Structure formats: structure tokens, C-alpha cells
Amino acid sequence: MDFQSALNRKSSRRSIFSRREVVISGAIAGVAGALSLPLLAEKAEANSGSAKQNDAKILNNALYYEHQAIWAYSFAAGKLTNTDVGKAVLALALRNQADHKKHRDVLAGAVSSLGGTPVKAESSYDVSSYINKGEGNVDNDVNIAKLALALEIDAAIAYTLEAAKLKTPKLITVGASIGTTESAHAAAIRATFRTLGVNIEIVPAAFVSVENRDAWILKV
Questions:
Q1: pTM (2 decimals)?
Q2: Fewest CB atoms within 10 A around its CB: which of 3, 67, 101, 164?
Q3: Tens of pLDDT along 33-50?
């Protein structure tokens, strides 16, 4: 039985979301809600000019990818079917997108507080590199979820790497917190596959890094 068939068969016999997924979603909301614009603005005031420029550039790069994630979820939502699988993917996509919107607002506020100009959202983004590598597609519900998974994994890795380059300790913590949320998004996507009957590990590795990225990705 192929991947899509397994999902369709299992989804007709059980509820879409398990208690495990509810716990994961709650954890995501807690991390995102802990970040606040006043905190970032207050800490940014103590930075030197060079540190502010450094941090504003890094946070603006992160903001670009938050815009991309928000767009990707909206774009994919319009291509999902009205099946149980499509509804499951849509529900999780909207939940993850809500967190990305919170990240966007926090990062934009932080960039402004550092004296920078927040990067604007573009009308569309190119995700063909993922499709070309077989790390998702937009041709069916399952592949859309795989594409979202790849994007979330790369976001988690990027935040880990970039947060270390920030000069302000509190901003480092914020960057690491957002990276943790991206990892939770990836785990939630994998948990949805598991709930729908696909036999995969929700957390397949002890770390989310460049070295073990392939353990997290689900190929088309």
C-alpha cells in the first residue's frame, strides 16, 4: 500500500488529531506567546551601533523566511483537497502559519527597534529547489505536507545557526526560542502522518541540524 493510500485508509477510521498533537500544539503556542515586542525593544536600546546593525541584518534575514513560510502555507492551502487527509493537513498548516505570523510581528518590531527597516513580504516565493530535490510538491495533500516539513526543518536549522551570530543575549534567546518552535512544527507535521497511519518516528533524531537533516525529511 502506498503512502497516500495508507493515509486515506487510516483517516477514515480515526480522529484527525490525537492527544499527542494537542500537546505539541500547546507547546508551540507557549513558545510563540512568550515573545513580546516591548522586551525586544527594551533590550535593543542598550546595544552599540555596530551590534544593532549586525542584529538588525540577521533578524531581517529571519523575517524574510517568516514571510516565505506564511506565503507557502497560504499557497498550499488553496491546493489541498476536501478529503480527511486534506483537512488534517489544512488544520495543521493554519496552526503553524499562525505561529509564523507571530514570529513575523516580533521580528519586524525588533528590527525597527534596532533602527532597521523590516523587509517587506513578496507576492510569491520560489520553492522549486525543494520540489526538484523531491522534498515535497504541491500536486497532492501528502506531498504538500512533505514540502511544509522540509521548510520547517530548514527554518529550525537556520535559526540555530543565525542566533549564534547575534550580539544581544536576549535576542539570542529569542532566536533560539523561535528555532525551537520551528522544530516543534516539524514534529507536529510528522505526528500528523503518524496519527493518519504512517509508521514513522515523530522525532527521528536527537538533534535538528545540517548533519541529520535527511532523517527528518520525507521524500516524495
A1: 0.77
A2: 164
A3: 434 444 454 454 545 678
